[in-house]
């Protein structure tokens, strides 16, 4: 799935204010619950799954990107939340850079192929410097979503 298919304005945290990756992950999961994308009863399980995945191996990529993700039982749909942290969040990234763009992804456990394809699609999009620069320059959630849609179209 494309990132633009998963996001809407209330699933974007334009000023992700977190001092570490653990609080960033919790904040993004809370945003999904607050927006109704996750059932409130699932929030603790989702946070636990995301944090357990992060403890097993960092999801900090390169170039200021992190994609914390987990497969969770009981979910019916893929849920994504996008956070922008202009000052960066330490994420133990592969290149040591702080994460400025964080996409938190939760996928139903029974949809493994979708999990892999969605991660690959998002990583491919965010690997482009022009995409990252445009996302970081966006003034609000609507503009950020427009950037994502436009850049995905350019990739086709």
| CATH homologous superfamily placement | Mannitol-specific EII, Chain A
Total of domains: 1
Q: What is the approximate shape?
A: globular
How many angstroms does the end-to-end distance come to?
14 Å
Q: Helical proportion? A: 40-55%
* Uncertain regions spanning at least 5 consecutive residues: none
Quickly name the level 1 CATH class. Alpha Beta
pLDDT average, as an integer? Answer: 95
Structural class: alpha/beta
Largest sheet: 5 strands, mixed
Q: What is the count of β-strands?
A: 5
- What is the annotated CATH architecture? 3-Layer(aba) Sandwich
Our Rg estimate from Cα atoms comes to 14 Å
Report on this model:
The chain is globular, with a radius of gyration of 14 Å. It has one domain (3-155): Mannitol-specific EII, Chain A, CATH 3.40.930. Helix 2 (21-34) packs antiparallel against helix 3 and helix 5 runs antiparallel to helix 6. The chain starts with a helix and ends with a helix. It is of the alpha/beta class. Strands 1, 2, 3, 4 and 5 form a five-stranded mixed beta sheet that branches. 46% of the residues lie in helices and 19% in strands. It has helices spanning 3-6, 21-34, 43-56, 112-126, 129-137, 141-155, and strands spanning 12-13, 65-66, 69-72, 79-89, 99-108. The protein has six helices and five strands; from the N terminus they run H-E-H-H-E-E-E-E-H-H-H.
């Amino acid at each position: 799935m494309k990132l633009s298919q998963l996001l809407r304005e209330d699933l974007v945290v334009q000023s992700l204010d977190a001092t570490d990756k653990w609080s960033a992950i919790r904040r993004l999961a809370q945003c999904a619950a607050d927006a109704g994308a996750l059932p409130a009863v699932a929030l603790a399980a989702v946070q636990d799954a995301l944090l357990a995945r992060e403890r097993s191996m960092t999801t900090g990529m390169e170039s200021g990107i992190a994609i914390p993700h987990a497969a969770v039982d009981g979910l019916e749909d893929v849920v994504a939340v996008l956070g922008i942290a202009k000052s960066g969040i330490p994420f133990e990234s592969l290149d040591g850079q702080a994460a400025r763009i964080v996409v938190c992804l939760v996928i139903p456990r029974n949809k493994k192929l979708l999990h892999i394809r969605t991660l690959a699609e998002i990583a491919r999009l965010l690997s482009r410097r022009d995409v990252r620069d445009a996302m970081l320059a966006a003034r609000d959630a609507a503009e950020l979503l427009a950037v994502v849609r436009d850049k995905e179209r350019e990739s086709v």
